[in-house]
Amino acid sequence: MPADVPLGCSAEDEMKIYIRGRNIEVTRVVRTRVERRLGFALGRFGERIDRVLLRFSDTNGYRGDVDKRCQIDVGLRPRSVRVEHTDADLFVALDCAADRASRSVARALEREREWEESPRSTADYRRVTS
User: What is the mean pLDDT of residues 6-33?
Assistant: First the structure.
């Protein structure tokens, strides 16, 4: 399956997951793990998420070391959230980044909800801009 093909793109599923790898082979096992992990971490926000772009990279190539990076960009409507985690194990990097993404999306949506619910009267606006 090509790296640019979104996972989980049925008609009723709004969240599209794109996976890209640099110096890392994105196997079927990795794709399955990503789909399951991100579905669990971000599924509750599904209707608010346009797309998820996940990038795996190995900065040292095949030499090893603590350098497997997982970067997740979550496209919300109307903003986006980016998180990343680096670890020696690709799946640990994925799990930690997915946890961070879940918390960051929850925070971003909570801030947006609070902003929409805050009282903004015309009188207060005039006082501030005068």
Answer: 77
Q: Residues 71-94: what's their mean pLDDT? A: 93
Q: Does domain 16-129 have CATH number 3.40.50.150?
A: no
Domain spans in the chain, listed from the N-terminal domain onward? 16-129
As a dihedral over the C-alpha atoms of residue 110, residue 72, residue 83, residue 117, rounded to 10 degrees, the angle is -10
**What value does the mean pLDDT take over residues 82-101?**
95
> In the block, which residue shows the tokens 């640019």?
4
3-state secondary structure of 127: helix
This prediction has a pTM of 0.77
